[in-house]
């Protein structure tokens, strides 16, 4: 404690580690090891069966507690990102041929809207095995990412799987 207090380390967190050592070679970086310890991120999904009704909406909450409402508007084909609520214009999508084609159009629109939102720290991507399904992943790991996907006026067109799988495995992870 005497030497560490003299150089100002008495109130800091100290780490100790054991590694196989090769004389004359440093093949580890303790800070790099700590930074690679990531807490698992929660994932959820949204599967559409058709275009949704006017004023239908869903709300996402990220690991940090940021919330964003996304609302569908059949009166326009223009979407407004980074607003509250985010407006998703589905006028032209609603006129697409089959229910599957309309659902795929909604998926493209939602993926773009979620990934364009600078307030929300969630990444969206189309499921490679189902073009009507969106996989949502919290950008930051941890149990706080296990949030509910709220939705309204879409019960016939949307199946939701809430975020799960996030955990606080590493106390200094992110």
Percentage of residues in DSSP E strands: 25-35%
Helix content: 10-25%
Class by alpha and beta content: alpha+beta
Sheet with most strands: 4 strands, antiparallel
The largest beta-sheet arranges its strands as 5-6-1-8
Total helices: the number is 4
- The strand count comes to 8
Low-confidence stretches: none
The arrangement of helices and strands along the chain is: HHEEEEHHEEEE
- Principal-axes geometry comes out as elongated
Q: What is the rounded distance between the termini?
A: 30 Å
Instruction: Round the Cα radius of gyration to an integer and report it.
Output: 22 Å
Average of per-residue pLDDT values: 85
Describe this structure in words.
The protein is of the alpha+beta class and 174 residues long. The chain has 4 helices and 8 strands, in the order ααββββααββββ. A 4-stranded antiparallel β-sheet has the order 5-6-1-8, with helices on one face. Strands 4-3-2-7 form a 4-stranded mixed β-sheet. The longest helix is centred in the middle third of the chain and has 18 residues, at 99-116. It is elongated, with a radius of gyration of 22 Å.
